[in-house]
Write a structure and sequence with these properties.
By secondary structure, the chain is an alpha+beta fold. Helix content is 38%, strand content 16%. It has one domain: Nucleoside diphosphate kinase-like domain (Alpha-Beta Plaits), CATH 3.30.70.141. The protein is globular, with a radius of gyration of 14 Å. The two termini are 15 Å apart.
């Protein structure tokens, strides 16, 4: 097994309901190290660039509208097999299908307002992390396994 990095975004619906600490605590209790984090707002153009792979799909406009304009919290997490482990903890996109105890099952409002985004592959993590963070913003020393 290897140490990986993944990107998680706490989405506007979770930020506005003040679920930030609850969500981060789930990751920390699962063995993840928070190695970068910030609260920001992005515009529609940035949201469209971030979700470029979904352009042309029926849900693209709603997806980008949801991410744009309101505060979000991008977070870089690190641990062994971080991508798969985070996806499991996050749960299915549709909270009605998400396993009990997952973040989306417990906090999502609906399929569009599902509280968190998580990288779905090493390639997406490699693209998504630098979208929000420069190398100088990542605390590499936190990646040491305990």
């Amino acid at each position: 097994m290897s140490v990986e990095r993944t990107l998680v975004i706490i989405k506007p619906d979770a930020v506005s309901r003040e679920l930030i600490g609850d969500i981060l605590l789930r990751f920390e209790h699962a063995g993840f190290h928070i190695i970068a984090m910030k609260m920001i707002r992005i515009g529609r153009q940035e949201a469209e660039m971030f979700y470029e792979e979904h352009r042309g799909k029926p849900f693209f406009p709603a997806l980008t509208e949801m991410l744009a304009g309101e505060p979000i919290i991008p977070v870089v997490l690190s641990c062994e097999n971080a991508i798969a482990k985070a996806r499991e903890l996050i749960g299915a996109t549709d909270p009605a299908l998400a396993a009990e105890g997952t973040i989306r099952h417990d906090f999502a409002l609906d399929k569009s307002h599902n509280s968190v985004h998580g990288s779905d592959s090493p390639a997406s993590a490699a693209r998504e992390i630098p979208f929000f963070f420069g190398e100088a913003e990542i605390c590499h020393s936190r990646e040491v396994l305990r």
